[in-house]
């Protein structure tokens, strides 16, 4: 499940819950695209409630980051951070441990 919401300061959050795999990655992409269309000052992708994050999810995040015209911050669990680190994408994305940290980062 993917939901989107706005926060003060032009921050838009896209929150994924459950699994991001072949069956659900398109929903994440659609959620990110919908949020991007709102022209946020900052786009936050919250993966803190994702239990499984497959390779298609990684591809979706990287593609979304390339298309997004505003700062994109990603909230990750330690497991997702580790996965992104293994494939070297942790250096390409702005990763945070909590939504508050991502929302208030300078």
Automatic annotation (TrEMBL):
Position of the signal peptide: none
Q: Domain of life, per the record?
A: Bacteria
Which Pfam families does its entry note?
STAS
Q: Where is the STAS domain?
A: 10-106
Protein name in UniProt: STAS domain-containing protein
Look up and give the organism this protein is from: Actinokineospora xionganensis
